[in-house]
Amino acid sequence: MKSNFILEPLNGELPYKLLLLADESEKAIDKYINKCEVFILEQNHKTIAVVAIERLNQSVIEIKNIAVDEEYQNQGLGKKMIQWVKTHYQELGILEILVGTGDASIYQLLFYLKCGFEMNSIRKSFFLKNYETAIYENGIRLKDMIVLKLTI
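Below the sequence we write its predicted structure tokens.
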């Protein structure tokens, strides 16, 4: 991967295949995606990663979706994407980045903690209220969303 790691603004169709790696349905994605800035990473004219960012106010953004193509996972791209988001939005005056994940999403929680996020709050019953079908991770039904915060 290039040393000058840059995510480009999406200019075209949403990469649902990638977005669905981090969310369960197009319907769920459609609820937030139009409020987001969407950036992609391409390699050899193929979109291999995506991040969708919603600005909550003048100083806070939330990562609504972040995904790396399965073929390119475990190569540090996710961490580089978080670092890029941090740098890019810090230059725009953002002070905090929020991200939410499922209460049984152990690997995602570890990933965000390793990226410097700290647990911030819990959105009780989020997955029960916002998804028509039950979602299971690691054999456990998702109920609450764990919200993590990174102060920049």
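The helical segments are 16-22, 26-32, 77-90, 106-114, 126-130.
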